[in-house]
Amino acid sequence: xxxxxxxxxxxxxxxxxxxxxxxxxxxxxxxxxxxxxxxxxxxxxxxxxxxxxxxxxxxxxxxxxxxxxxxxxxxxxxxxxxxxxxxxxxxxxxxxxxxxxxxxxxxxxxxxxxxxxxxxxxxxxxxxxxxxxxxxxxxxxxxxxxxxxxxxxxxxxxxxxxxxxxxxxxxxxxxxxxxxxxxxxxxxxxxxxxxxxxxxxxxxxxxxxxxxxxxxxxxxxxxxxxxxxxxxxxxxxxxxxxxxxxxxxxxxxxxxxxxxxxxxxxxxxxxxxxxxxxxxxxxxxxxxxxxxxxxxxxxxxxxxxxxxxxxxxxxxxxxxxxxxxxxxxxxxxxxxxxxxxxxxxxxxxxxxxxxxxxxxxxxxxxxxxxxxxxxxxxxxxxxxxxxxxxxxxxxxxxxxxxxxxxxxxxxxxxxxxxxxxxxxxxxxxxxxxxxxxxxxxxxxxxxxxxxxxxxxxxxxxxxxxxxxxxxxxxxxxxxxxxxxxxxxxxxxxxxxxxxxxxxxxxxxxxxxxxxxxxxxxxxxxxxxxxxxxxxxxxxxxxxxxxxxxxxxxxxxxxxxxxxxxxxxxxxxxxxxxxxxxxxxxxxxxxxxxxxxxxxxxxxxxxxxxxxxxxxxxxxxxxxxxxxxxxxxxxxxxxxxxxxxxxx
Length: 647
Fold this sequence. Notes:
This protein is mainly alpha-helical and 647 residues long. It folds into 2 domains: 384 residues, no CATH class; 233 residues, SGNH hydrolase (Rossmann fold), CATH 3.40.50.1110. It contains 25 helices and 9 strands.
């Protein structure tokens, strides 16, 4: 039984709906930790459908019309992509800031269908949101369309060569898919993003779809039973619930498993009379599936824009529930408008006929003239907005600029002469003592005390600890604050680095302690990049020793582990003598406008606030000790005065 060349295949729209729902839920709601594998479902569907259509065309016409094929693909893809890119780039320009960083390169990748390779070359991460990553990526989801477009370009050229084989066509496709999997395993050491983005390392789904197309499941009365196909569909959803790793078990392991299950589901759904096909063709799933392309295109740029506009952070960090729901509503609305008024007309009429239809609308009644005028005016505005967005895009993200400025401050300080101190020495002679004016007849001693004529000790003057008594070890937040720290504590020894964890900081303090290089106050700001272990804190205090003070800096970042980190730091300080807290979290709360666009790294004024929190903690310890000495001296004076003993 041979179907007409372009007959609709049952179940595919429903499978598309499942795929796009997995991806959308993954991006908007914390429910499917591996929902990104919905893209692999799309890949298998695309490989199967495109190959099936090409085979039917060849059987119907005796050849494959490449120009017609590519024209149909352009009509299907370009209008929707163009509208999404122009509209969302213009909206991003209205938001401004870090969301525009790298936009020119993203537009280039979108225009040339090479977004995946542009992203790899720029070091972008699909699984971004790292603390020291630069900026939210507006058009990140276009990477998968780039992979598909590259497939659409190359596969029609290669298919005629494969058709020369009388047997084993499917086996060749499976072999190519296996080669793609092996390439992914081979290159897995380069990071998950390289494997995930690479056309070579992520083509296995498309190729498995190709292999299935050669088996002609839509023309077989017997094949994969509906129960098996349904179980495969359930298996895909179950895989989306798996917490992903960053090794080959996920990239490509999890993705290959999802692709294989999709092959089984398609083979069962498209079989003539399949109950699974009828189930997947229910109206709601079919409606979503028909608009799945637009839904996929719109949801990511919209959630980036709305999240950045409302929280100043990337959706990689977190998406508030109200933002997720608003994004979902706007995505469905935008996808429906695009499908009805842009995609379908162009797909049906073609580009030139669609333009002529717009021209005729200007000569029609007032309603159509208004609609045409509005459409043209909107087009001009979004083109202008996109141009302005590229022109106004910052060279680097504000967080990267903050870290760069801090590194420059450290380099400038190291170029100047260092304050030489003996290891562990108290350099109190360099401390700034804020001495009040002593009343007449009072004497001022070397400790800054105003001593009355009767010898009664006076309260000590406020002391500011010299930077030469401070060793600081931290992460990129401390690095971004280096300028402020050096202004408040010239001569402080600061060792701060991007992405540094507490464990790495412990090793550094170990080394400094072994070399006798720790100063009186050891400041550790390492709670931003992950949870803190109490054993690490105990090691820090052991290295610092009883004669020095350990100052722990609380963390502030839109990350779920931060409250636990701060609780651990404060509890350790409360139960451990010789440990103080510099409360950066409280100092910056309510002043997040002083942070970079990622909501983590301080700008210049934020760095000053960080430095103030640290110096207040250090000075507080030193002045508490001075107050304790004063109280002891005052008690001694009182006892001596009571017994009128010589002083």
